[in-house]
Every structure is written in C-alpha cells, then in structure tokens.
Fold Class I SAM-dependent methyltransferase.
Amino acid sequence: MKTLNGIPESMLIPLAARAVETDHSEPIINDPYSKTIFEQLDYPFATITQAPSSQIGISIRTFILDRVVKYFIEHTKHPLIINIGSGLDTRYKRLKLDDVPWFDIDVPEAIEVRAPFFPETRYHKMIAKSMLDFDWIGQVKQNPIYHESQDILFIFEGILMYFDEATNTMLLEKISEAFKDHNLLFAIEHCSKTIANHTKNHKSVSQLKSHPPFKYGYNTLRQLNAIKPSQLEVACEFNYFDYFSHRWGAFGLFRFIPFLKHRFNNKIVLMMN
C-alpha cells in the first residue's frame, strides 16, 4: 500500500473500526466491504484497533450519517452528494446508491489507495484534489452528473477537526458561495474543544505513525456559531453519547451530565442555507 502521511493516514482508523464492528455479536453497523479492504491493506492495524471508545464512536457516526444520507435521498427530488475527505468510506456501496449522483473528493494519495476498491460508475465519481484546492468545484460543475436543479448534501466525516477555525470558516463560506443557487445541507463531524486540545491522548489518532494533530473543536453550539458562516443555519446536532448507550459502559452516563456530554465526545452537526 502507498505510504500515507499526516491527515491521509487517519482514513485508516474508520476503515478498521467498521471492519472490527462488523464482527461484533450485535454490530451497530454491518460493513463487510470495509472488512474486505481492511484484510487486503498492508498496514500495522493492531496499533489502532485497541481503542473501544474510538471504535464505538466511529460506528455510531457511521450509523447517524447513513440515516442522514437515506433521509436526504428520500426527501429530495434531485439529490447530489459530495463526500469531502472520503478516504476509504464505503457508504455509497454499503447503502446501494447506484443511481444517486455522488462525488468522493480527497487528496491524490488517498484516492490512489481508494481507487482500486471503488471503480467509478456512471453516477459515482472521484476527484483527486485537496478540499482546499478549489479547482474541485469546477470539476464537479463540469461533470455530466451535476446539474443546477439538484439539492446538494456535503459530508465532512473525520476531517474538519484537523483544520483551524479560520480554515473551517473559509472552506464553508467558499462552498456556500460557489453553490448558492442550490439548496444545501452540510453534515459535519466535529469533536469537542476538549478533545481537540488533547490529540496526544486520543486512543487511535495518537497511534498513527504521522501523529496528525486536531486543530478545531467546540464544546457548545454557541462556540460553533462564532465561526459558522452567516449564510448557514444549524438545523440540529447529534451527540454520539445519545446512541447505543449499552455499548458505552460507564461513559454512557455522560449523556445525563451536559458538562461531560459536550466535552468528551464527537457530534454530527447539520447546517443548511
């Protein structure tokens, strides 16, 4: 496998988590294709598969985002989904979305690893660009699967915590402006500010060879509103502690204590224009 450094290496963590979860006696998600990829890649996965809380969190975020995607498709006449920082995400295949226009966007070295497992189809396309290289916007708009009547769902899963506040704001503003003539929905994973300040203690990320640091997180929605582009409104927030409490053990009690709930887990935020 091509050597991955920095943020691209982190894409191996959710792959491993989904593969391990699939073998659980009562899995939160079932993802046999992640297991197939996991078994074929040459990487010392043992270093990042010994963190139960991280694996549970990733499985729950997968569960939540799967539901968001299915709801969006069911309630949208002309959907388009743009998955930014796609890594080795299997959602398009797992949910059998063969007739849904879908772009997976990631840096070239990540797409190089991804491409052998996900051949492009009529509706499923990949763009090998950094999300901060905004040429990808033109490539989306020039592709035949894009048209101006579509509603667009942007997915940011396990990516924006690696970038600072200014970059988060600039990125969302740029995308919102470029696609302002569409109805837009953003499904974004954020970690807490507490977690962002302690990447070295993260049970999985700290074990990566390249140790990419978290740079942004928020504890309360008020903090998120301070950096959110004005053209976007927060629709709802899904905290991982609110799901599958029996799997969290003692951590499951944090859902009853707002101070701890807000500071010791990740969440999915939905924003719309």
Summary: Residues 61 and 251 are 16 Å apart (CA to CA). The chain has a mean pLDDT of 93. The radius of gyration is 18 Å.
